């Protein structure tokens, strides 16, 4: 089986780090690894999709750098907003649409409410086709409506959702909120 993955030993944390454009489980069909070495037998724990998590963190970092360069406060990463954004990205992928309104669940604020999240105000940016965090943030910053969401001064929280719909191409959902 030919796989596009790299393995790196993190000696400080005694971990094998797997980097892949797809999750390890998607790439191999396995949810854990068994290792043999001169030191004995090892079994991996839960496999995490490090690439997408890293991309989410990079988007937030790039957004915060843009905001800071204009004297705006940094946004805080919100687990709940990330959950909602990930739900939205997955829904777009699974139902084969690309829009701010889901044919099944309505718009992002309806999804947020259904998932128990309320805010004073919210905003959403979506994008499709970009292959990296810097590309998607650049595209958003070059669009007046998306840029306005990123730079809105009353937003405090951010959450990112990402789904790979074809190798190296992603659906990106970025949610912002001013919490209650």
From TrEMBL:
Coiled-coil zones: none
PANTHER family found in the cross-reference section: SCP DOMAIN-CONTAINING PROTEIN
Organism: bioreactor metagenome
All copies of domain SCP, residue ranges: 61-176
Protein name, per record: SCP domain-containing protein
A Pfam family that the UniProt record links to this protein: CAP
Lineage, uppermost ranks: unclassified sequences, metagenomes, ecological metagenomes
InterPro entries, alphabetized: CAP_dom, CAP_sf
């Amino acid at each position: 089986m030919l796989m596009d993955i790299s393995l790196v030993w993190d000696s400080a944390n005694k971990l094998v780090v797997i980097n892949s454009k797809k999750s390890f489980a998607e790439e191999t069909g396995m949810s854990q690894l068994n290792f043999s070495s001169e030191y004995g037998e090892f079994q991996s724990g839960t496999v995490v999709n490090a690439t997408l998590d890293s991309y989410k963190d990079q988007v937030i970092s790039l957004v915060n750098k843009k905001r800071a360069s204009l004297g705006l406060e940094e946004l805080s990463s919100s687990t709940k907003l990330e959950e909602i954004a990930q739900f939205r990205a997955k829904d777009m992928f699974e139902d084969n649409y690309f829009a701010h309104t889901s044919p099944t669940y309505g718009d992002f604020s309806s999804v947020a409410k259904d998932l128990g999240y309320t805010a004073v105000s919210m905003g959403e940016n979506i994008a499709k086709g970009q292959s990296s965090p810097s590309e998607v943030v650049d595209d958003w910053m070059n669009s007046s409506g998306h840029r306005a969401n990123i730079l809105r001064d009353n937003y405090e929280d951010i959450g990112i959702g990402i789904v790979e719909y074809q190798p190296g191409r992603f659906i990106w959902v970025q949610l912002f909120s001013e919490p209650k």
